[in-house]
Specification:
Layout (H helix, E strand, L loop, with lengths): L6 H10 L6 E11 L4 E13 L2 E10 L7 E6 L7 E7 L4 E4 L27 E11 L2 E10 L2 H7 L1 E9 L5 E8 L4 E13 L2 E13 L2 E14 L19
Antiparallel strand pairs: 1-2, 1-13, 2-3, 3-4, 4-5, 5-6, 7-8, 8-9, 9-10, 10-11, 11-12, 12-13
Length: 246
């Protein structure tokens, strides 16, 4: 008899899967507007797990207008602490704390929001398995997530999320999210997924925003180098490190 699984237990495994520790990732972010005009940004991302706490720092390396801009995300296992996020603006030599009311803002002009860059608290959602389908010949669960209250909607910006979870590794390979207001839908599609040092790693992800049938903006993330289990200075995940740069 096949094991009966719940949507919640699947999402717990999604959140708990090994996504690497002490990683250094070089990547490009390509922003595509509705006319097809592209802007390319080069970044380096660092991550570190410390018990139930997760820390991530991202530096923009190119082009010149965003060089040395940095972002820090501190996610704590203690729910009372929540997430702390900071953006360093080198032109102003200033660190901006991302307030809860700003979490739905665009991250550096992309289709990602600051909420997307943080941690998901599963207790803020109800989950339901809608069906099972295949994505690129891989068996996936299709799971709907609904926020339990208006506070969660305001913090995330989404009134509904549909996750396509690959059954053999618990990676979310696609997502469809309805934005608050109901006029736009955000699509996420993992185009390339590689096993690096035993860890399933999305190496190319496309995110695009649609209003009706029209794509109004697109973000393409491509990893150019992925290294796990690196020696990373803990100070890199502190706000004061921004002023020193890489």
């Amino acid at each position: 008899m096949a094991e009966v699984v719940s949507a919640r237990s699947i999402m717990e495994k999604v959140e708990g899967r090994d996504d690497g520790n002490n990683s250094v990732i070089d990547l490009t972010m390509t922003l595509v507007d509705k006319k097809g005009k592209k802007r390319i940004r080069v970044m380096r991302s660092y991550s570190r797990d410390q018990g139930a706490d997760e820390f991530g720092t991202m530096y923009f390396l190119k082009p010149a207008d965003v060089k040395d801009t940095a972002f820090l995300n501190q996610s704590y296992g203690d729910k009372k602490k929540g997430d702390e996020q900071y953006l360093y603006l080198p032109a102003l030599h200033k660190v901006k704390r991302i307030a809860g009311s700003d979490k739905t803002d665009s991250f550096m002009g992309s289709d990602l929001t600051y909420a997307d860059m943080g941690h998901i608290d599963l207790d803020d959602f109800s989950f339901e398995i809608l069906k099972e389908v295949y994505v690129r010949d891989e068996h996936v669960w299709v799971i709907r997530a609904l926020p339990i209250d208006d506070s969660t909607i305001n913090e995330t910006g989404y009134i509904e999320s549909i996750f396509f979870v690959q059954k053999n590794n618990y990676v979310v390979v696609r997502a469809i999210r309805k934005l608050k207001g109901g006029k736009k839908i955000k699509y996420t599609d993992v185009k390339a997924l590689e096993k690096i040092d035993g860890i399933w790693t999305p190496t190319e992800t496309h995110i695009f925003m649609k209003k009706g049938k029209k794509v109004v903006h697109q973000t393409i993330l491509k990893n150019t180098s992925v290294k796990y289990n690196q020696e990373i200075d803990a100070d890199l995940f502190k706000v004061n490190s921004f002023y020193r740069g890489l």
